[in-house]
Design brief:
With 187 residues, the chain is an all-alpha fold. It starts with a helix and ends with a helix. The protein folds into 2 domains: 137 residues, no CATH class; 38 residues. Helix 1 packs across helix 4, helix 3 packs across helix 4 and helix 7 runs antiparallel to helix 8.
Length: 187
């Protein structure tokens, strides 16, 4: 339980940019501890995106419960948000005085770039699991590409993306649609 607290505290301390920015840390935790697999992470994302609440907190709760039951479901998300609470309280007192200072603006600019990189890395990792259908994609060739790619998942993602761009409905519409399609077509 102490190890879980420390790992999720570190995740919360350094995952700047929100829930998706926690994904590289979750990959690291999975690899280091064996508590869950990379495939489990794709399930966590699906469940976390389709349930109320922040993505990172939902995933931490999932990992905690999956690993240590109810106690873990309490420890992991609390450890994840604890650094933010401490930092935000401290920063909020200082930021109002110095928010127009060039050094503060430059630091925020750098943090936005780091957040974008963390989110992009997480997105690529999720896409590999969803579209390639395997956690063990170390070696492959273009000749076997047709068998390697989960074309149904690629098609569904393209349809959902097209729907998002064209119809701009609430995200829950696309989540429910995708879940129903997954059930019907056995993804």
């Amino acid at each position: 339980m102490i190890e879980m607290f420390i790992r999720f505290f570190g995740c919360g301390l350094f995952a700047i940019g929100g829930g998706l920015a926690t994904l590289p840390f979750l990959y690291d935790i999975a690899e280091a501890t064996g508590w869950f697999t990379f495939h489990d992470i794709s399930n966590m994302i699906a469940i976390s995106e389709s349930t109320p609440g922040p993505l990172g907190v939902n995933m931490a709760t999932y990992v905690g419960y999956h690993t240590m039951g109810v106690i873990g479901a309490l420890v992991a998300p609390l450890a994840l948000v604890f650094p933010s609470v401490i930092i935000i309280i401290g920063i909020s007192k200082i930021l109002d005085k110095f928010k127009t200072a060039a050094v503060v603006q430059n630091a925020l600019y750098g943090l936005r770039a780091a957040s974008a990189a963390l989110i992009a890395a997480a997105g690529i990792g999720v896409a590999k699991i969803a579209f390639l259908g395997s956690e063990q994609m170390q070696e492959w060739s273009f000749s076997g590409l047709g068998q390697l790619i989960n074309w149904k998942a690629v098609l569904l993602a393209a349809v959902v993306y097209g729907g998002l761009v064209k119809f701009k409905k609430h995200p829950i519409v696309y989540i429910v649609f995708s879940a129903v399609i997954g059930i019907i077509f056995h993804y």
